[in-house]
Amino acid sequence: MNNQENINELENETPSEVEIIGVKFKPSGKVYYFAANNFKASSDDSVIVETARGLEIGNVAVANKMISQSEIVAPLRPVVRVATPADIKHAEENKVKCAEAFEICKAKIADHKLEMNLVEAEYTFDNSKLLFYFTSDGRVDFRELVKDLASVFRTRIELRQIGIRDEAKLLGGLGVCGRPFCCASFLSDFVQVSIKMAKEQNFSLNSAKISGACGRLMCCLRYEHETYEEALKNTPPVGSTVKTPNGNGVVIETSPLASMIKVRLEDKPETPKSYSVSDVTLLYLKNRKPSDSDDAASEESNKK
Predict the structure, then answer these.
(1) Cα–Cα distance for residue pair 121/127, rounded to 1 Å
(2) Is residue 246 domain-shared with residue 280, that is, in the same domain?
(3) Of 104, 128, 162, which residue constitutes the final position of a domain?
(4) What letter would DSSP give residue 217?
(5) pLDDT by residue (tens digit) across 176-232?
(6) Exposure string for 58-96, b = 16+ CB within 10 A, e = fewer
(7) What is the pTM of this model?
């Protein structure tokens, strides 16, 4: 058998599809895919999987599914087993340990007089590692703190500095709309948000009104952004000159989604009138270039 025949035989033995299971480790976290490894699991079942951090327990978000081999991002780690009652009990015990570890670490931070705010403590399922998440305005030298914590917990300690958006996602809370934070309930990742989105939706540019509890621009500013962008293509911007059934005038206000504009007429400037976009003709378009402040606000909103 020559080399080409060997290659062809190997290609024929390689399955074109792979059975995977999608797993979430947090309710609002990303979905990670694992090789099903002949296990069958339904949505919301708990499974033990192998990760870069060791064994972890997660909830099934995508039940057994066949996908093309070409869609796999190697390496695809396996599902170790469907969680047993003992596994679930162990996970609950870990939550209690995490709460205790949080209080101990908080006290140690005070003892070392470090400028850091502890957000969460997390054990891996197999207790091989204990992670602490914190926020801080600058860099923190926590080497002595790690040594102190390692002597207490007798396991591998890892401290991770996170941004204030990550803190809001971990802690959760209620937004100005009265609903739970989007990032803590269903957003698997943060989206890019800019001040330009608020301007296009006619929001007040008062930072207190368009910022979330984390102090960054609200994620929901992006939800209707594409719809507004499409509507704005057919809406004369403020400052443009248009021809109306009552004469020429200047646009002073727009309602893109309603396809309505308010115009200050040249003949009667004291009584602005509203018109449908379809009833006016654009005579002069006022061009608006994005300002430096827009770009700066966009960058600042996405810092963590």
Answers:
(1) 12
(2) yes
(3) 162
(4) B
(5) 888 889 888 888 778 788 888 888 888 888 888 888 888 889 988 888 888 888 888
(6) bbbbbebeeeeeeeeeeeeeebbebbeeebeebbeebee
(7) 0.69
Asked whether 17 and 68 are in contact (CB, 8 A), the reply is yes
Tokens for 202? 């006619």
Q: Are 244 and 265 in contact (CB under 8 A)?
A: yes
Q: Which two tokens stand for residue 277?
A: 């976009």
Distance of CA 142 to the CA centre of its chain: 28
Three-state secondary-structure class, residue 164: helix
Strands (E), 25-83: 32-35, 46-51, 54-68, 79-82
Sheet holding 241-244, edge to edge: 273-276, 260-265, 247-255, 241-244, 281-284
Q: How many helices (H) and strands (E) does the chain have?
A: 9, 13
Domain that holds residue 130: 89-162
- Two tokens, residue 107: 């006290």
